[in-house]
Amino acid sequence: MLRYKNSNYNVIFEDGDKVVFVNLLTEAIATVNKEKYNKIKEIMESPNKEWSREYADLKNDLIYGGYLIEENFDEIQHLKAMNYRSRYDASFISFTIMPTMRCNLDCIYCYETHEGPTMDEKTTETVANYISTVAKSKRRIHIGWFGGEPLLKFDTMKYINEKVIKACEEYKTNFSSSISTNGYLLSAEKAKLFDELMIRNVQITLDGPKEYHDKYRPLKGGGPTYDIMFENIKNFFELTKESRITLRVNVGPDNYDAIYKLVDALEILPKDRLRIYFRWIFQGGETEKEIHREVMNFRGENSYEKLAKFYYYASQKGFETFLPILSNPIYCEYDCESSILIGPKGEVFPCTVAVNEGNEFGKVTNNGIEYDKTKYLLWYKHDAFQDEECKKCELLPQCFGGCRNAIVNSGVRGCPEEKTALESFARLWYFTKDMERKLKAVKKDENIKV
Ligand code: SF4
Ligand code: SF4
Questions:
Q1: Residues at CB less than 6 angstroms from ligand 2
Q2: I need a labelling partner for 179 at 20 to 30 A (CA). Which of 35, 169, 190, 247 fits?
């Protein structure tokens, strides 16, 4: 008879008269009443006892959800295989291209310099040729546009996407594209071309309702940005058929109480093509230390719960929300050797936060990418499965080793805040999934009526 043990990644908590089971590895989420929970508790305490029929059925459910696993099943090894498959998957390739380091805005906390190069014609050609050649040997190619503000170089975006789309059609390679923009330059003229350029996802950052957004994200040289950006978002949905918008809402001590107002203002947008997530204002630079300290003080010990309340609010209003940590079996896309960030001079950088001069570890040339092997190996060296802390950590199945930039550049493990708020994280996850399920049920009902 097979012998069983408890998974190391069960998180169990009460929610009113129910008990919720979340398994961080299988991502199973189940709810039971308290009477059933008491029986489950007995089974989990002695999983290998001879159980009566009723208990045996419950035990099978626990096995199915991965809450109980075979005694010889090695969860760490299983996670490692998942992680390595993603990190070293060579069937696809994802490029993030920064066509310029310049920006039309002057966000008060931005870590980028706003100065610096933009991509010239020669580099544009080299990059376009390189990606088109790569299309031959890949099943899937993605191009994400990033900056500075990439829409300042829309011609470059258009040129590269058109050329690569053509190559992908020739080689039957799947192509997709996305952009991170501040939205101010997302005019009707440009938006109309997004379907053709296959830019399916647009990420825009909001810093609160108008009064805060205008204060945090003014135009270079001064001037408000919220109204134009918001108008552009509204028009965007009418001018494109398939593209979706992801809104990243930056939260800080100043705008904290105004975030509900922002979520209310978003209600006029089509919810089926929009998703939202909330993040603390990101502090990447050395020069913004005062702001950094203010944000850290404000976040305090229950930082995660402070942010979670906006997820609860937005989900209840019917918005699709998402928790970035739940995406793939990696921590961030720059864990993958197939995620390549190209700067305006054709430099290859390790990640979008490590784009300062001196951090580049490669260059796109007419012969492909030439890497500085020492820097390259250093970037990919950290491995959660050789790190005793990570191997012991309950968040490992969702974190997979944390921010690489933190460990490479400061030697400190880049644990996300979910680590210190594991139950809150599991609660929020359960809640957003539950809301999603209920919304789908409502939509299905509406369809029946139609
Ligand atoms: S939370 Fe920290 S310790 Fe845990 S897996 Fe992530 S990086 Fe490692
Ligand atoms: S490595 Fe860290 S800093 Fe760089 S993009 Fe990933 S999570 Fe962000």
A1: 332, 334, 351-353, 403-405, 414
A2: 169
354 CA → ligand 2 middle, Å = 8
| Residues sharing a CB contact under 8 Å with residue 369, sequence separation 6 or more, in sequence order | 130, 340, 348, 362, 363
State the Cα–Cα distance between residues 258 and 268, nearest whole angstrom: 18
Q: For the ranges 2-11, 276-285, 337-346, which has the lowest average pLDDT?
A: 276-285
Element of type H or E holding 370: strand 368-371
**84-450: in CATH 3.30.565.10:** no
Pick the CATH number of 1-73 from 1.10.357, 3.30.1050, 3.10.450, 3.90.930: 3.90.930
What's the confidence (pLDDT) of residue 113? 60
> How far away, in angstroms, is 118 Cα from ligand 2 center?
23
Atom of ligand 2 minimally distant from the CA of 351: 4
> Is residue 450 pLDDT above 50, yes or no?
no
Is residue 75 within a helix (H) or strand (E), and if so which, with residue range? helix 75-87
Closest CA to 335 of 24, 97, 141, 83: 83
Instruction: Give the predicted TM-score (pTM) of the model.
Output: 0.93
Give the type of residue at 218.
P
Protein residue closest via CA to atom 2 of ligand 1: 415
What is the position in ligand 2's atom list of the atom closest to the CA of 284? 3
Q: Which DSSP state fits 411?
A: S
- For the cut 50, the answer to whether the pLDDT of residue 286 exceeds it is no
List pLDDT tens digits, range 217-240: 999 999 999 999 999 999 999 999
Domain ranges of the chain: 1-73, 84-450
Q: Where are the alpha helices (DSSP H) in 317-411?
A: 373-381, 388-392, 396-399, 404-410
Spell out the long-range contacts of 416-422 with Cβ–Cβ below 8 A and sequence spacing 24 or more. 416/325, 416/331, 417/303, 417/304, 418/304, 418/325, 419/393, 419/395, 420/304, 421/302, 421/303, 421/304, 421/305, 422/11, 422/394, 422/395
For residue 104, name the pLDDT band (cuts at 50, 70, 90).
very high
